[in-house]
Amino acid sequence: MTPKYLSGTLAPVPDEIDAHGLTVDGALPEELTGRYFRNGPNPRPGEDPGHWFAGHGMLHGVRLRDGRAEWYRNRWVRTKLFTENAPFVGENGVDLAAVSANTHVVRHSGRILALVESGFPYEVTPELDTVGPVDFGGRLTTAMTAHPKQDPLTGELHFFGYGFFPPYLTYHRLSAGGELVESRQIEVPGPTMMHDFAVTEHHLVWLDLPVVFRLERGGMPYAWEDDYGARIGVTPRAGGPTRWFEVDPCYVFHVGNAWEDAHGRIVLNAARYTRDRFTPLWDEIGSEADPAASAAASGAAVLHRWTLDPATGVAKEEPLDDRNVEFPTFNEDLLGRQSRYLYTVGEDSLVKYDQRDGSSQVRKTGGDTGEAVFVPAEGASAEDEGWLLSVVTAGDSSRLLVLDARDLSDVASVRLPRRVPAGFHGSWLGEE
Ligand SMILES: [Fe+2]
């Protein structure tokens, strides 16, 4: 039986192609000039990596310019795992370049980086050719999360690396110029799967949750362990001890925005899984079972808010909705500062939340729906003035959907020359 992670919307494509002069329905805004890149696992033909998360990273790119969709191309990231089948753990220890680079693609200080949380980033060109692994001149000695955060005011890139062995968690900071200027160990009780974090104006926010690594498990060696407990940590960016807040046990892959409110409390929004939701999902992600993949994969978390009060040491918890959503995104010009809107992916739909009045809008897309990347309009006067870009797949065809983020109405739709397998994260890279 074909494993679920090689079937349906997750089925890999067999090769790399280029296509030019794509058909556009509707009218692409001329100012949307740049590149939309998206990453995701794509094993080679005949290859079974044993888990959805383990497939080689493949980047899909769409070049938009002056109202036209100039090209689409897809390329595997040429990691040491891809080209040499190099072992992650070998005679000389862990090789942080022997990874899949399959989770996200971001640009910082002019460098485009394909990311996976188990190892080093891989630099790629604007044409998606692989340059090679990046360790910032030898200064990076841990893995790098796939979810770094760029401070919109300072241009610094904040990130972390987690490891199976001590130090379990290390915070890193790149200057706006791309130099690794700080690495700092953060004390946690054990090795957990820490997929994302948050950054506010003055703090770093850690999710130390009970999905724990055990070497002896083999395969994808993480599982829920009640005994680990669950806590959220707040560390001053400027340095100093981490303050931990006990929270109800849960798991989080993805945070939305976080900020400090007028009372100095930390507000954190995220797509949250309970144990009852996480455990079956985790079992299913790597399984050979029923191929109704992505609805379930995006269908178990709900939007949740924690408000952490340093004055009392107490975390207030509140669900913000009861719908199943994942992949929260927002206008990153407001990263770390209070923001109003969150964009999420529901079942064959996008859901926009207004966190000020508690309302939401649902936009059905007619297909399996990817993360919605928000692109602000030039000179925008409102937080949601801009576009959402999302890859939507129905049957064997995919398109890049461009919506007006204010009301989720259609702006344009780019017909892609092939099906794009359901994947993880992407970025809009505007002209520099
Ligand atoms: Fe992610």
Automatic annotation (TrEMBL):
Cofactor(s) for this UniProt protein: Fe(2+)
EC annotation from Swiss-Prot or TrEMBL: 1.13.11.-
Domain of life from the UniProt record: Bacteria
Cofactor note: Binds 1 Fe(2+) ion per subunit.
Residues bound to Fe cation: 147, 195, 254, 425
GO molecular function: carotenoid dioxygenase activity; metal ion binding
Alphabetic keyword roster: Dioxygenase, Iron, Metal-binding, Oxidoreductase
One of the GO biological process terms: carotene catabolic process
Pfam family, one: RPE65
Entry's family note: Belongs to the carotenoid oxygenase family.
Protein name stated in the entry: Dioxygenase
